[in-house]
Amino acid sequence: MLSFPRSICRKYISTWRNVNPNEIQVELMQAGLSNKLFILSVPNKEPSKAFLRLYGPLRQTLAKIIDEQTILEVLTEVKLTARIYASFEEGRIEEFLNGQMLTIDEFYTEPIYKKLISKLHLLHNLQKVKPKLLTLKGNETVIISIIRDDIHSQNALIDNDKLHLVDYEFSGFNYRAYELAVIFTEKTISYTVKEPPYFKYNWEAKHYPDETEIGHFIELLI
C-alpha cells in the first residue's frame, strides 16, 4: 500500500527523485470515501514533507461547476490554500502545512470565527473568479460566488495564531448563505469515527448553534 505514495512523490517532487524509496517515511492520515490522505517526509530535503491526497470513490463521482484545479490555482495565488506541487489522475501532492487540528468545541469559538471570517471575505470576493449575478423567476437576482462548502473542524489547522483551511474539493459557485448553513450544520457532525462511513450525526438540538451564536457570527461577517 505504501509503495505507490512513495513512487508518485518521487516522480513529481524533483528533489526526491534520487531518494531511496525506503528512506521516504509514509503516514496514513485518513482513508475515507472522498480521499486517502498521506504525509510523506524525507529528512534533509526541501521540501522535507509533502501531503498526498489520493481520490476515493466519492470524489470520482462529484459533479463540478467549475474545474477544481482552476479554483486551487487561484486560491494558491492569494495564499488561501497550500501550494500544489503536482496534480495527476489519481490525486495531487500538496505543500505540507504545519498546524494543529481543532476539536469541534475549539473551532466554534469567537477567536476562530474572526479568523475564519477574514478567509471568507477573501474567498467570496476573488477577483479572478468574480461573483456572478443569477436571475431567478420573477427577475429577482442573487449573487453567487466561490464558496468553500465544507468548513468544519477537521478541515482547519491552527498554527500559532494563523488559521489554515484545507481540502477545497467541494468548492464552487453557490449562494453565500449556503456557506453559512454548512458551517452551522457541520457542528452537528463528528468526523472522528474510524469505521465507514467515517462520520456520525449528532441530531440533538444542543449540538446546533442557537440563534444568538448564529446572529453573532453574521454580525461579525457583515
UniProtKB/TrEMBL annotation:
UniProt-recorded Gene Ontology molecular function terms: choline kinase activity; ethanolamine kinase activity
Cellular component terms per the entry's GO annotation: cytoplasm
SUPFAM superfamilies linked to this entry: Protein kinase-like (PK-like) (SSF56112)
Keywords from the named record: Lipid biosynthesis, Lipid metabolism, Phospholipid biosynthesis, Phospholipid metabolism
Xref: Pfam families: Choline_kinase
Lipid metabolism in keyword set: yes
Gene Ontology annotations of biological process type: phosphatidylethanolamine biosynthetic process
Family: Belongs to the choline/ethanolamine kinase family.
The protein, known as: Choline/ethanolamine kinase-like
Organism of this sequence: Dermatophagoides pteronyssinus (European house dust mite)
